[in-house]
Design brief:
Structural class: alpha+beta
Number of domains: 2
Strand content: 35-45%
Radius of gyration: 17 Å
Oligomer: single chain
CATH topology of the largest domain: Immunoglobulin-like
């Protein structure tokens, strides 16, 4: 009798084989390792090949003023602009600055809510990379009382 765990394990193996076979090339390109390894926000944005970001009221970020536990901080980023290529979340004082990259299409509403880990109190940036080459951001300081990564 096959257990649920066995089924999940076999399913993951099949997906891994399919992704490695070239049938799903977008999975192979999904992660930019140098961007996720970058220690600073500027280095992460440079590794992603984005233009210099400009602060804009067209990009919003919602996060708590105080996060009691940095292991799980809810962050929402959104924009009403059209032509959004990517939404990024970066935490200034994390060991690696880039927290998340969400690839967008015109059929996806550019609004993301997720939970991130934060090492300590710092600014969190929401960045919208547009198809026209512009890069816009909003930031919010989140005070972390118990660090979640190190």
């Amino acid at each position: 009798m096959q257990t649920r765990r066995d089924t999940l394990k076999h399913g993951a193996m099949v997906l891994g084989l399919l992704a490695g076979s070239g049938l799903f090339p977008h999975y192979a390109q999904a992660m930019n390792k140098s961007a996720f390894d970058a220690k600073s926000i500027n280095d992460a944005l440079k590794a992603l090949g984005t233009a210099a970001p400009v602060e804009s009221k067209d990009v919003s970020i919602t996060a708590p003023d105080v996060a009691e536990n940095g292991a799980s901080v809810q962050v929402t980023t959104a924009t009403a602009l059209s032509g959004v290529k990517q939404l990024l979340i970066l935490a200034e004082k994390n060991p690696t600055a880039l927290v998340a990259v969400f690839n967008m299409t015109d059929s996806i509403e550019p609004s993301i809510t997720t939970r991130i880990k934060m090492a300590q109190t710092s600014n969190v940036f929401a960045v919208a990379v547009l198809n026209n080459g512009r890069t816009l951001f909003a930031k919010k300081e989140v005070i972390v009382t118990l660090g979640g990564c190190g």
